[in-house]
């Protein structure tokens, strides 16, 4: 399989350097944003789920209606509806999009975020729920006859779904989380494990741990890594742009009264902040300043340089066994188009060189 490149869309123009403006759901912007990714050569786009924002599944339904080939990655939080019902909902959306859907399962890294939606389970209990939830979800997608289930949290009698995913054996499951509880669930259920943009050594160590957990269940897992590339026609201009992004991030946070971000509770956030403690720049061009400024929120580390330099830096993650790259910018729509012109073609070339050498980008590195 070839390199998979994922972007990210939202329904409103905003980022760390752009205060939200306009309606929360701007149909015209959403359409242009999705179509920009399709024209730029992205394979798929992530649609995030937040406790105060639009429903991601309906955003995808709209974006799919205004694109032809672009695929989607739906952020999905287990536990707010039952897994058998969720399986039917997701399979329905996947069928209407022509098989263009994958699911990114997020158990929750913030108690405050979860509680806004009425979820008061603690961290490890959320992952235990995810484990059982995914078991029922997958069984609902794949079972050719009604089944019973009796677990710690869910009980079903004659559960069944007439609607099956077009993709076989089921809708691909992406999964994130770096805690011990998360890694155990990833090993059992993930088709693709998603890392935030950590230094190479830490990324390689986490990949090895996930492979070990998957091996216990006789499984192999693909790997995805997320970055916020900052590119320009010279390295000096790219670093100058990074400085401007940091200054504007600080200005907007101060203006909103946020100040420096309170660190998130998640293990992934802790790992990003640990990398930031080593300095603003790690591994030559991994820039951690925004991760530090935001408290380790989301995929907030960058690779900075010319398109060729950033492509070469990303290729080092491919060499660790990564087959999917999630890239999004601080100027969301404009950067997506820029990546399509300058970065994605170079990444495709580098990935093709590796495949020509017999390296499978979606399995273990040779």
TrEMBL record:
Keyword RNA-binding in record: no
Statement: the UniProt record of this protein carries the keyword Oxidoreductase: yes
Annotated ranges, domain Luciferase-like: 7-322
Record-linked InterPro entries: Luciferase-like_dom (IPR011251), Luciferase-like_sf (IPR036661), SsuD_RutA_monooxygenase (IPR050172)
One Pfam family of this chain: Bac_luciferase
UniProt keyword terms in alphabetical order: Flavoprotein, FMN, Monooxygenase, Oxidoreductase
The protein, known as: LLM class flavin-dependent oxidoreductase
Organism: Ideonella azotifigens
Source lineage: Bacteria, Pseudomonadati, Pseudomonadota, Betaproteobacteria, Burkholderiales
